[in-house]
Amino acid sequence: MKILIVYDSFFGNTEKIAQSMKEALERDPRVSEASALRVGDADPENLESLSMLIVGSPTRAFRPSPAVTGFLKRIPPKGLAGKKVAAFDTGISREDASPRFLRIFIRLFGYAAKPIAAGLVKKGASLVIAPEGFLVQDTEGPLKEGELERAAHWARKCIEKE
Asked: Which residues lie closer than 8 Å to 97 by C-beta, 6 or more apart?
């Protein structure tokens, strides 16, 4: 199984999550190749050899980063037909959000992973697991304790569902 993790990262938190996933997948005997690329280094035209694509972004204004959105738009129509996919994001928890009105906006508009998943499915892919969010302590991080381990576990669950 060949897996590519495409991510964007502003403060390094999403990159740490992606690398934790990659390392967990590299240790799995079912995975022949696992790689993680920053979105600017990933070519949406060269995804045909993959078994699975995992895409992640920090949550920016309740959406994926512009670079991840652009990557998804550049994938050709039905360019992911027959591919397995998963989506994740990083962001502050609703409980930790301040000021208080931000909690309401998070409840209404959500995080980046669901729009990423929808964009992947729109390109013909099959979602193997529900979109997941990994938590940071503040806007710039650091990641909350245990999130790297949770990311590794989630990545392993992705291939169990495959």
From this structure: 103, 106
Distance in angstroms (rounded) separating the CA atoms of residues 82 and 88: 20
Q: What share of the chain is helix, strand, coil (3-state, %, to 5)?
A: 40, 25, 40
| φ/ψ of residue 84, rounded to 5 | -90, 140
Contacts 24+ apart (CB under 8 A), 143-150: 143/13, 143/16, 143/17, 143/90, 144/93, 147/17, 148/16, 148/17, 148/20, 149/20
Contact between 151 and 134 (Cβ < 8 Å): yes
Rounded to 10°, the helix 66-74/113-122 angle is 10
What is the pLDDT, as a whole number, of residue 61? 79
One-letter identity of residue 46: N
Do residues 130 and 87 touch, judged by C-beta distance below 8 A?
Answer: no
Cis preceding linkage at 115, omega within 30 = no
Q: What is the pLDDT of residues 97-137, one digit of tens each?
A: 666 666 566 666 668 999 999 999 999 999 999 999 999 99
Which helix (H) or strand (E) is 44 found in, with range? Answer: none
